[in-house]
Amino acid sequence: MSNVLVKLPLLSSKRLEALQSASIYTADDLLHFFPRRYLDRSNVQRIQHLAGSGEEVTVSGHVVSIDEVGFGKKKRLEVSLSDGTGILKGVWFKGASYLKKQFKKGAVLAFFGQAKRYGKTISMAHPEISSISDDGDLEAFSKIIPIYPANKEFSKARITSSLLQKWIMQILNQKNVTEFLPLQILKNNQFPEKAQALRNIHNPNSHQEHKIALERFKFEELFLFELSMCKIKHEVSARESGHIFGNLKPNTSTYFNKLLPFELTDGQKQALSDIKRDVRSGKQMNRLLQGDVGAGKTIVAIGAMLMAVDNGFQAAFAAPTEILAEQHYHTLSQHLAGLDINIRLLVGGQKTALRRDILTDIEGGGCHIVVGTHALFQESVTFNNLGLAIIDEQHRFGVQQRADLLNKGNHPHLLVMSATPIPRSLAMTVYADLDVSIIAGLPKGRKPVETAIRSDKKREDIYRFVDQELADGGQVYIIYPLIEESEALDLKDATAGFEKVKARFPDYNVGLLHGRMDSVIKEETMQAFKENQIQILVSTTVIEVGVDVPNASIMIIEHAERFGLSQLHQLRGRIGRGTRQSYCILIPDVKVSRSGSYRLKTMEETSDGFRIAEADLKLRGPGDFLGTKQSGLPDFKVADIVEDQLLLMNAKKVAQEIIHEDPELNKPENSDLKIVFLPYFNERQRFYGLA
């Protein structure tokens, strides 16, 4: 298809610039500039049949009267239309004298708008009008009219919806639109071919026509993405380059048979079994380990790392924040203290001499396991023999950083972990290249956290409940929000709260934790809380992930409506980690938005991380939910992975079948698809360390 725009009628340089402001540079861009909504003028009714309840209708008839009513600013124009069955009044509240000149008694007109009844009178405010000379004119007017997205530049250049439709239909009438979806896909789904689908989007004869056409384009977007993910997965699994971890001695078997102080859950056993099968297959493992907060993913990660070390390889464990990296480092150091394994911590801000020592240890092979933050991805980090990369809280990193870490070894095995449960629709898209293990349920002895919303008026009741829990040996978190834009203000909030809590609970040690503290003081404060030297910890959200204090049984979240759902769920996951019954108390401000109320109510009603994640995804959308622009998720123009899950599943199934039967798309029926797909795929594969 020719992509020249300048041949379109009435296209001035000003209008060309306006189109470019909406990223329309080619004829193809214009064809894919879809209406945002439609005006349905096809609903032609006789006046006597109108209910007058605000329904959008088209009526036609003769003008029987033209009257200016009222005085001054309240003057309005009323034009009465009769179709022989009744009378409808068109009413204009501005420019009555000017508009009056456009109407003549006896003229045949069509009105379109909302018909409303006032007593016995049915009227239509500011209707759209068209002159009718025959049935053909009425047919032309009473159509479904596309309304396109607009901006200031469009307004200035006088680019209207009708002009856009005129240009688009001209392109469709003059150019050949190439179909690239295989015929069998169109047939199986009853989709129109691309040229017809475009006509049905821009000039539909019925709602059904544009609905099916839109489905086709949604499928097209999802299908190309799923096809690229299936192709990536196929190429990774086709490589006979995965390191084989066949040996489980001396470390793996010793740890699980002698050192581990508790029994694994069925979910943990299954996840370890999945990993063991992957790392013995001779192919690179690409696995996503999902589990709710507190499900015990770290133990599974330890098992995977020990398998790497037992076979002469290094393991890297990446965490999104320093506090979480430090937490993992201490957990590993404690769990593996009885084994001859060298574990190092690499984070930003370490002293030059220490950093140099760690980097030398990693490069020389003396370091078996390195735990770190984004510092692990830097060019200065060279591994001796990286065999396993583990990425915790993957959505806080992004696929490009995943690729950077994988490129530091010769196709190391990859284990991605997420404590934020990933809704099915996202798992099928962003993580479609990964196999999935889910650890369901909580370890033995743990009880679900009870959650309640309480107003500030109930604060003294809450504190009396805290008194009882402290007297019984429990510990308490009190959390304040920390929003980057107002960090100083929120810090003041937390500090003021800390002073009030100290005054209210004089018999107990109260600690304060926030992001601006020196990391050594942070660590000491957290350690003191763990050891019950501090009974109440007032904190900002720095404790959101990773910190494990089994004795903490109450969490009070101040200004709870300010937190996102995933964040609230993560925070709540810091309690209920021991055998004590735990309680999460959400204290919102007096004024709470509708979405804030929805979030709090969801937290009160369920502790199921997957249900919470689905609710969060609906509220925020995929881009925001993932928390990174580097998610690898394309910017879908018409498809919505939350709303279009059935289409998504269908697209994935079709993509899997095609890659299974024809991975290189060399069959004749896939030739047009291949032309469109290859540039798309080449753009995507760089995110996954394949380019």
Helix-strand layout with pairing:
Blueprint: H1 13-21, H2 27-31, E1 37-40, E2 53-69, E3 76-82, E4 87-92, H3 96-100, E5 108-118, E6 121-125, E7 128-131, H4 135-141, E8 144-147, H5 152-156, H6 161-174, H7 183-189, H8 194-202, H9 207-238, H10 251-259, H11 266-279, E9 286-291, H12 297-310, E10 314-318, H13 322-335, E11 343-346, H14 352-364, E12 369-372, E13 386-392, H15 399-406, E14 413-418, H16 424-427, E15 435-439, E16 450-453, H17 459-471, E17 475-479, H18 487-504, E18 510-513, H19 519-530, E19 536-539, E20 552-558, H20 565-572, E21 583-587, H21 594-605, H22 609-626, H23 645-661, H24 671-685
Parallel strand pairs: 4-6, 9-14, 9-15, 10-12, 10-13, 11-12, 13-14, 16-21, 17-19, 17-20, 18-19, 20-21
Antiparallel strand pairs: 1-8, 2-3, 2-5, 3-4, 5-6, 5-7
Helix pairs in contact: 6-8, 8-9, 9-23, 9-24, 10-12, 11-12, 21-22
Structural commentary:
The protein has 691 residues and is an alpha/beta fold. Among the domains are: 43-142, Nucleic acid-binding proteins (OB fold (Dihydrolipoamide Acetyltransferase, E2P)); 251-439, Rossmann fold, CATH 3.40.50; 450-606, P-loop containing nucleotide triphosphate hydrolases (Rossmann fold). It contains 24 helices and 21 strands. It has a seven-stranded parallel sheet with strand order 11-12-10-13-14-9-15, sandwiched between helices. Helix 9 packs across helix 24 (671-685) and helix 21 packs antiparallel against helix 22 (609-626). It is globular, with a radius of gyration of 32 Å. The chain starts with 12 loop residues before the first helix and ends in a 6-residue tail after the last helix. The mean pLDDT is 89.
